[in-house]
Amino acid sequence: MRIVILGGGVAGLSIAIFLKKNNFDVIVNERSQNVPLTGHPLSGHAFLIQDDVQKILHEYDDDLSSDYLGIKVGMYNLFRPSGREIKKIQLNEWRCVKRNDLINYLYSLFPNELIKVGRAFSHFIYENGKIVAAQFMNGDIEYGDLFIGADGANSIARKEIFGEVNFTPVEVKEIVGSAYSEKIYKTYHDVFTKFQKEDKGLAFGLIPTAENEFVWFIQYDAALSETANITADELKTFCKDLMHDFPKIVDDVLEATDFSQSYIWNTRDFDLLPSFHKENVVLVGDAAHVAVPFTSAGVTNAIIDAKMLADCMIGTSDFSKAFSNYYEQRKDHVKEHVEIGRKLKHLFLNPLETDEDDIPVPLIPEKKDYTDLNKNKPIQVKYFTDPICSTCWIIQPSLRKLKLEYDKYVNVEYRMGGLLKSWDVYREKKDIIQSPSDAAKHWEEVCALHEMPIDGDVWIQDPPDSSYPPSIAFKAAQMQNTELAILFLRRIKEMIFLEKKNIIRWHFLESAALEVGLDVARLKRDCEGKAKNRFKEDLKLANDFQVNYFPTLIFSDKKGNQISLKGCDEFSEIENVILKLLPDAKKATVDLSPENLFKHFTTMTSKEFAFLSNMTISEAEEILTVLYNNQDIDKYQSKSGVIWIANFGKRKK
Questions:
Q1: Taking Cα atoms as reference points, which of 501, 500, 493, 394 lies closest to residue 446?
Q2: Which of 244, 260, 496, 532 has the greatest number of C-beta atoms within 10 Å?
Q3: Least confident piece of the model among 138-152, 356-370, 475-489
Q4: How many CB atoms within 10 Å of residue 22?
Q5: Is the pTM of this model over 0.85?
Q6: What is the rounded distance in angstroms from the CA atom of residue 525 to the CA atom of residue 518?
Q7: What is the CATH number of domain 371-581?
Q8: What is the pLDDT of residue 100?
Q9: Superfamily name and number for 2-69+99-167+271-347
């Protein structure tokens, strides 16, 4: 069984490596002479890859060095040309890889004698109605049993088996180049920075690829100008004219660019093909599907294609069925990817149709918000809480158990209660706590009584003077995504209760927001505006329900029945309320393995893990210590206890 691969790019080399590792007879045919075998530089610049692709690359080579995985890109920043920040989002496990570096690495993993260069594919040769060989323009012929078309967006292999595809018109063009600057790198070393016009389709992006090195792009509405067949100097002038009212950093990047290595990309796509194969020919990568570049996932899709196709082919002799299975696995994702690319293109060309808060981030899929769906659950709970309330911290194990066991029936709606407006106002309540030092003592007592780690020293070292700023920040987070807002609230609670961080300070709120995936630029805008009114609405609601103790949980069913629980109630009391309102409710069967629990809750105290696992704290800590020693989890040690942090699947190779 001889497999002939047409194309020696990322897709072709990837499928070749997987198949060769599984003892297939494979030969790769590359049209260019400019490959590592000849020592000449490769064309192309760089691309972004995420964690899923990095894992696939590790399957090529268990000892894969991070040197081949480019440079980590930790942040996405979107600005207007005026410098006004629109979006600031942390990127998890994204890296920018130079195309040359990855291609060279892939070539190093495949036998050189099985790579034939200078072979531009011409057409297939048939015998008795079956494809038996590939004819190349240099006159070479390669016979085989199966043929894999990996020859890019303008694939001849695709044309041979399916005819011409209907490409969409070129509505957006992209100029791509590389720049070298030590000065720029000091500021932009781990950030994907983008400047985008608010009133027309024009943007500039900058991504680090290595120390002191960047790839940059200019995306522009093709209707703005015609740029065919221009020299390097003319291209530089054209870029500067396009960017004339963009920040100085853009001009600095253009000045640091060798435009003889830059090019103009006419972006286009085509609809999902009815199949990725015909008889004994199958397509991968851009040969199989093309999307406009706004999603930055072309190389990612090529590598995933190769992995899935190889998996379908391994262990079978029915390759027609294997090719069909490959298509079934990929078609929905490919179709979605094309549609997302088209949506992003439309928004780019029509920016006035989109509110700034709703501008999508091309690297991050839109996070689903289940607010409307959750409102249809039979039991609704209004949970009045506060970021600095110690009893709201110690109820965490019960809330998490509620989520695991009764999420099907119960929706918990988080409301802020406004525990501490200021110390002057709080003292008027004649509470036993009259000062930060009283709060420190109270926290230590709560910690000892309930076995949840709480360090009261924050009230001595850097005491908050109000709980309103983090409460407003939570309401701002809710305006973006209710699930992420809950993660944000959890994170700022960890900061104050274990890490002694005064969470009224913006840099701590910003850090927590970035960690959980919130857009910090929008969070700040909303904290200064809309979220204040949302917080006032919560305070009014708390007053209407006469909430005077935290936490307070108000349960209601669809018949209008209502039951309230105040304070740190046992989980059995919460469960009793659910069963009283919904007698037929049955708690879910939960996989209590540590890996599954940490999948649901990426951080847990010893008390939480023990409570969710139905074991004692000493039993839990034995298991947690073993997991920690095996590097499956990390830990943060506070004065009063440990919080354990999921690390499953993240250990270094």
A1: 394
A2: 496
A3: 356-370
A4: 13
A5: yes
A6: 13
A7: 3.40.30.10
A8: 84
A9: FAD/NAD(P)-binding domain (3.50.50.60)
